[in-house]
Amino acid sequence: MSFLAPALLAALAAIAIPIVVHLVQRDRRRVVQFPSLMFLRKIPNQSVKRRAIRHWPLLLLRIAAFALLALAFARPFWPGAGAAAAAGAGREVVLLLDTSHSMAYGGVWARAQAAAKQAVSGLGPADRGTVAFFGSEVEVGVRAASERAALAAAIDRAAPGAGATRYGPALRAAAGLLEASALPRREIILVSDFQKSGWDQAQETTLPPGVSLRTVPVGEATTANASIVSLAFARQEAPGGERITASARIVNRSGTALQNREVSLEVDGHREDTRQVSAAPNGVETVAFAPFTIAGRPARVTARLAADALPVDDAFHAVIAAGGRIPVLIIEAANPGPDASLYLARALAVGNEPGFETAIAPVDRVTAEQVGAASVVILNDTRPPSGAAGRMLEARVRAGMGLLVAAGDRSSWPDDAPDLLPCKPGAPVDRSGTTGGALGFVDYGHPVFDVFAAPRSGDLTAARMFRYRPCAPAQGATVVARFDDGNAALVERRVDAGTVLAWTSSLDSYWNDLALRPVFVPFVHQAMRHLGRYADAKGWRVVGEVVDPAELTRGLGLGSGARGLALGASSDGKAAVTLPHPTVLTPHGNPLDFADPSRTTFTLTEPGFYEVRSEGDKPGEGAAVAVNVSAAESDLTPFNPAELSAAVAGSSEGAAAGAAQPLTPEDDERRQSVWWFLLAAGVVLLAVEAVVAGRFPRIAQG
């Protein structure tokens, strides 16, 4: 027998305590009153040792209890007994089966299933197995089962998915499954085509001590695969819509040339054009299709290559919408200055990603319908509108619309106007008698100014500011830019769901010369993009991404181009917003379950078109999400599995795949757990001792 903590055996010396208690007894002195002590001799009081132990059962109980407690804390074990037990105690095996889309190439999947079943059939009677499938995510099929039939059935039901290969997360998940196992031998069996793109050596993945890795490669020795990796669109204005020219980029990942492979273009399910493509070995080609016209609702576009040994990457899907324009309403004063909105209108007339639909109305004649149809309103050197238009303005801003206030010469904000301003403007500062002021501070991390952060992207500080209004920021407002004297130039404030920007000078050429500078157009465009919450539309997404369906329908009504969001003004002038729960359909038409109210997102697991329908949408009218497989997964180049085994072993102990790991003394002691039984026995003896001591009160009192 050995001990994990032999130093604690020194506690056995405590056995002497009950022996001393039994052999030594104090003799209690008795005081006797005596009339005279003159005839008595003084004798000193002394302790008297007993010559024999009279209560052996109690002494043995106490000695045994002390001995057991000391041995328990020393953690005894029998060396080699754990290894002997391990030889016949069985293994805990986690079988990792690669189900990424590259496993569908040729006969790879059939070999993978056969190899996985062979590993299951090799499990002994005392072994337990877990089958887990992995691509970009890990899914446990059958866990800790000793019945080989259940494990084999899970392998039969599996099939390659559309995800990409990720070895690191799969190995970490397998190590976690093995961590709680009490079996002495723990092993991971990895069945895969060992695609090079799936192993990121920068991610440190190390298996815990005692866990071995056995790799089973099932990939093809030589591969040939062609795939469509992207779609590009060129736009041209046309009567009633836009003419779109689509171009597909095709990659030939093969040592042989691609000869006259058919590639077609489909728009909303109808074939529009068919071409032939040829590509050199390991070459790239671009195929341009005949133009097609779109107008109104977005179009679902698919480029399809004639199928090869890996069909899943022979189709590429995208969604393209006409226009992508932000409706902007410029409200100017009832008696505007000359060319008050000229520079603004010209700046918004250029650009197409996004484009801007601009309308101009005087403040005394603007209607609630005009305000309601805009995504961004600019109060250009004027007061806010009153009446129904004013109530609609407040309601729309609070519901998410953007508002830009240019505080020029005619600008004012009555006390009874809605509380929307980011700051309270004061009397103008006049610096026209000098060279003027300039912007002294600009937050280049803000979305309005981030386009100017790169070198040679435009100098905002070159513009001269001759007049501007001091503006004390409201509570919760943020100063985005300041003039060189410290006064606020651009202030931002969130008002419920909307955003309000206040520019404390004019947007014409009277109070400053910013409108004459090259930076004016990008400044105005960035402000509109930010206020209109415009995001570059993603033509497609990749399997494995997580999508919030509300993001596909939020803010798309009332002139900004989508359904599902109802905005209006209530009787108190506040916004009434309703967003019905969407229905999400997979490319195969299966609805996703959102019965759990806490579930607000879904993961893209299939290539094709997901459809997000709001209440009232008919089939095909919902927002479409185009999903494609990872282009990196289409590269079937393998790597040596020994590199993976060596990288995750972490030390020379686990370098050999499948090698049995020696048991340490800690492993032996942990598996035997003798200390627990000794501790329990010691506690029981102490309880018995308490009962026995009650029968011998003098001895118990010592």
Number of E-type strands: 37
Biggest sheet: strand arrangement = 19-18-20-21-29-28-27-24
Q: How many DSSP helices?
A: 15
Number of domains: 5
As residue ranges, the low-confidence spans are 554-579, 651-661
- Large-scale geometry: flat
What proportion of the residues form beta strands (DSSP E)? 25-35%
Largest sheet properties:
8 strands, mixed
Polypeptide structure, described:
It is a single chain. The protein has five domains: 2-27 and 44-80 and 669-701, no CATH class; 83-222 and 637-662, von Willebrand factor, type A domain (Rossmann fold, 3-Layer(aba) Sandwich), CATH 3.40.50; 225-322, Immunoglobulin-like (Sandwich), CATH 2.60.40.10; 325-531, Rossmann fold (3-Layer(aba) Sandwich); 541-628, no CATH class. Mean pLDDT is 83; it is low at 554-579 and 651-661. The chain is an alpha+beta fold. Helix 2 (56-73) runs antiparallel to helix 14 (674-693) and helix 4 (108-121) runs antiparallel to helix 5. The chain is 22% helix and 29% strand. It is flat. It is built from 15 helices and 37 strands.
